[in-house]
Design goal:
The complex is a heterodimer of chains A (615) and B (96). Chain A is α+β, with helices and mostly antiparallel strands. Chain A is built from 19 helices and 14 strands. Chain A folds into 4 domains: 123 residues; 212 residues, Alpha-Beta Complex (endopeptidase fold (from Nostoc punctiforme)), CATH 3.90.1720; 198 residues, no CATH class; 33 residues, no CATH class. In chain A, the strands form 4 sheets. A 6-stranded antiparallel sheet of chain A has the order 6-11-7-8-9-10, with helices on one face. Chain B has 96 residues and is of the alpha+beta class. Chain B has a 3-stranded antiparallel sheet with strand order 1-2-3, covered by helices on one side. The chains are: A alpha+beta (615), B alpha+beta (96). At the A-B interface, helix 1, helix 2 and strand 12 of A face helix 1 of B.
């Protein structure tokens, strides 16, 4: 009777210990999961924080973005590990931030564990610019003064409509003297009142046309003593002028305009000895476009040279005559790029006309297929479990133990991936769920279970084989944190399976089963051996170890097939049909083309049909 | 003296202990699930707040969300087993 008492107490104690240990592991898993969640929030907010810096200054340096990201990440309990500006060519479009959130705790059997969960997030910035509704187009004169500044300010207004008496967009456009008044004022040479062409003529010192310098004025109607039209000499034989109703501010050849009076305002100062060549202004003259826009496009790296910029902008302005913003957007293929150009060309006077919007970017599918152990199971090997009808209770429990070990490993691998991108996590979840499903199915008694076990081993062989090839020449598959713990569990599971299969081989009555289980035992042993180095050293499973795992899993598959010779025929048949189908699909276009070719095609088709297939 | 009864008592006690532990595990899972939910809502709400966008009703319906200038706090009620008090679990995200 005392034997019964002894049976209960150890069982209760064991269950209690198991519960406590399981609870501790679960708690740490929860901590890791929580760290993953916090890390993702920290990454999201840090990315937005960095993107805000970019939004306020599109040409902000990486250090200032990183500083903002670090402040936000630290406030949310994470640490920034990488900040990468995102760009579309030369156009800044956002920033990617990676942070680490750490979960620390004690785990029975694994000791003090500190797991850093890495999370990455991207925030995008889209810029917008609206030119002022009233007043002239602002222009950043980039330190220009005097005559050069006058010409630059006037050249920025190319394309605006002429309105008699107008001097702002609110009035629908400019007239000729309104343009002159604006250009001089922008250059820091304000003219008194609102001078008309006649007033300007009276203020000017007449000069011969051959002595004109950029910024001087040209007139029409001086014969009457009260000219009715005025323009600004831009150099290079061209005049910038708001011509007449129905036309737009443009460049005109000096010689073709009917100008009959020429003069220089004293406030402008003496003409320079030699004009400084301005490539942007020359291209703007040639294509009749605002010079400051094409200069900015080249300066920002959005256009290769000013002539290409001027040519494409001229075409866009023809298509969008009423809006320079729309024209530049059409030219550059996006409003965000246009906004940056207009901000750069317009300078601070654009003010509130320039705005930016920050949005978190969706994770890309490319992340799901990227390199790195983060997105794949840290341990490709897994103990194949098999249960056959009539197997002993011991072997059934052994198989179940292996399956549980593998299931735990898969779950740990999944948890280890927490905090990574959502899409890869989902991808990994589906993959791990698939593999876990095979493991669970392997517990089904009979051939179904064996088939699932074999499929799982084939899966492991393929996964480890691919990893071995991809990581050949490197340190191998890195192990840390839960990846390492998962590898340890998997090692135990494989060793357990090797012993279980060995026992089944030893006790099997049929020769076929003895050999088959023997192969499975040897394969499981090889898989365990492949993991030993990585698990013992605790840094990585070397490529040789991965190769051992692949070979071991392959031997396990061979063991299953040896025990089920009928499957070989089935697998070969299925494989043959698959290859045949692939062949037919692959060659379908060729065969279709050949069949359309008449008698020659018939001959070719018969030749192709006569080619024997190897299956 | 027979010890069969003693064994039965121990079995019953162990079963009750196991049941209690199981209930504890269930409650822990509920807490963990609520924490996950709070974290998810805090993440979404803080991102929307940082982007300057309003919070949709589907978020505010699921939890008590408080948006301040520098932080977003999300409180969700933890489902409790019968007899246990309902507690609120709060997650806070610091805005940039």
């Amino acid at each position: 009777m005392s034997r019964e008492r002894g049976q209960v107490a150890p069982l209760a104690v064991a269950l209690a210990l198991l519960l406590v240990a399981g609870g501790a592991v679960l708690m740490h898993l929860a901590r890791v999961g929580d760290a993953g969640g916090r890390g993702q929030t920290a990454a999201d907010l840090a990315a937005i924080s960095a993107a805000r810096v970019l939004a306020s200054d599109p040409f902000a340096d990486q250090a200032s973005m990183r500083a903002a990201a670090e402040r936000t990440a630290a406030a949310n309990g994470a640490r920034v590990t990488a900040v990468t500006p995102l760009a579309d060519g030369a156009l800044p479009i956002g920033v990617e931030v990676t942070v680490d959130a750490v979960a620390t705790g004690d785990v029975p059997g694994a000791g003090r564990m500190s797991d850093a969960v890495s999370s990455t997030s991207r925030a995008g910035v889209t810029f917008s610019a609206v030119l002022p509704g009233a007043g002239f187009r602002p222009v950043d004169l980039h330190g220009l003064t005097g005559r050069a500044a006058i010409v630059a300010a006037a050249a920025a207004q190319i394309g605006w409509p002429y309105v008699w008496g107008g001097e702002s967009r609110a009035e629908g456009g400019f007239d000729c003297s309104g343009l002159v008044g604006y250009a001089y004022r922008a250059a820091g040479i304000p003219l008194p009142g609102r001078p008309t062409a006649a007033t300007l003529w009276s203020m000017a010192q007449p000069a011969p046309p051959g002595a004109l310098a950029p910024g001087d004025l040209v007139f029409k109607g001086t014969g009457s003593g009260a000219p009715y039209h005025v323009g600004i000499f831009a150099g290079g034989g061209a005049v910038i002028v708001a011509p007449h109703s129905g036309a737009r501010v443009r460049f005109e050849p000096l010689a073709a305009g009917g100008w009959d009076g020429f003069g220089s305002l004293a406030a402008v100062g003496p003409a320079p000895a030699a004009a400084v060549p301005d490539a942007a202004l020359e291209a703007a003259r040639e294509f009749d476009v605002p010079a400051h826009v094409i200069a900015s496009e080249v300066r920002l790296g959005l256009m290769p040279d000013v002539r290409a910029a001027a040519r494409t902008l001229a075409a866009a302005m023809t298509a969008h005559p009423a809006s320079l913003e729309a024209a530049v957007a059409a030219q550059l293929g996006g409003a965000s790029a246009a906004a940056l150009v207009l901000r750069d060309g317009s300078g601070p006077e654009l003010g509130d006309g320039f705005a930016a919007e920050v949005r978190l970017l969706p994770r890309t599918t490319a992340d799901a297929t990227g390199d790195g152990a983060l997105f794949r199971s840290p341990v490709p090997g897994a103990p194949p479990a098999q249960v056959r009808g009539g197997a002993s209770l011991g072997s059934r429990l052994g198989d179940a133990g292996g399956a549980i070990a593998e299931g735990t490993e898969r779950a740990l691998a999944q948890v280890a991936e927490r905090g990574s991108h959502v899409a890869p996590q989902a991808f990994a979840a589906v993959r791990n769920a698939g593999r876990l499903g095979l493991t669970a199915a392997s517990l089904i008694p009979g051939d179904t279970g064996d088939l699932a076990g074999m499929a799982g081993s084939a899966w492991d062989a393929a996964e480890a084989g691919v990893d071995a090839v991809q990581l050949w020449g490197t340190d191998g598959l890195a192990l840390s944190g839960f990846g390492l713990l998962a590898a340890r569990i998997s090692l135990l599971g494989n060793a357990f399976a090797a012993v279980t299969y060995g026992w089944q081989a030893y006790t099997a009555r049929r020769r076929r089963d003895r050999i088959g289980y023997g192969l499975q035992s040897a394969g499981s042993g090889l898989m365990a051996a492949g993991m030993v180095v990585g698990v013992v050293v605790g840094t990585a499973i070397p490529p040789v170890g991965l190769a051992l795992i692949a070979v071991g899993a392959g031997i396990v598959v061979a063991g299953y097939l040896y025990r089920h010779p009928g499957w070989v025929t089935t697998v070969a048949g299925v494989g043959g049909r698959a290859l045949d189908l692939a062949w037919r699909v692959e060659t379908a276009p060729v065969r279709a083309a050949v069949s359309a070719g008449g008698s020659v095609a018939d001959t070719a088709r018969s030749v192709i049909s006569s080619i024997p297939t190897p299956w | 003296m027979s010890q069969r009864g003693q064994a039965s008592v121990e079995t019953v006690a162990a079963a009750m202990l196991l049941a209690l532990c199981a209930l504890g595990v269930v409650q822990l899972v509920l807490v963990f699930s609520a924490a996950q939910e709070a974290g998810r809502i805090a993440d979404q709400a803080s991102v929307l707040a940082a982007e300057g966008r309003p919070l949709p009703a589907r978020l505010t319906d699921q939890a008590h969300v408080v948006v301040r200038d520098d932080a977003v706090s999300v409180t969700v009620d933890v489902p409790a087993l019968p007899g246990l008090p309902v507690i609120g679990l709060t997650r806070t995200a610091r805005l940039p």
